[in-house]
Write a structure and sequence with these properties.
The structure holds 2 protein chains of 2 kinds. By secondary structure, chain A is of the alpha+beta class. Chain A has helices at residues 54-63, 72-92, and strands at residues 6-10, 20-27, 42-48. Chain B has strands at residues 4-7, 13-17. The chains are: A alpha+beta, B mainly beta.
Chain lengths: 98, 27
Amino acid sequence: AEDTGVRVELNEEDDGKKSSIALKLWVEDPKKLKGKYKDTGAIEFTFDLVNEIPEVVAQEMVESGFFLDCDVKIVGKSIRDRVALIKWRRERTVSPGN
Amino acid sequence: SATAQVVHSAGRRFIVSPVPEARLKEQ
């Protein structure tokens, strides 16, 4: 995935079944953000892989004061990339015959 | 502990914690 300067990682082991999964997001490179970034640390949250939209969560982070509105796209893309990877891994690990 | 909780009006809970040092990008 593209290096957005915002890192999103799994915050729990993925059992491949749960739709809601714990993620952790933090800024690795503040220079890649458009707005001034206040170093708050890592943000832990849960994300529903089936029913939620990464950009909506990014917007909630903006409204909660973690990021400025001008960075909502970069945060949303970072979450989207990680979610896509998790879904791709799940598809690959579906046991044959299922 | 350095953790803090922020609950968004939509009901989502964000927990702020320190970034693991090993995961910080090398400068």
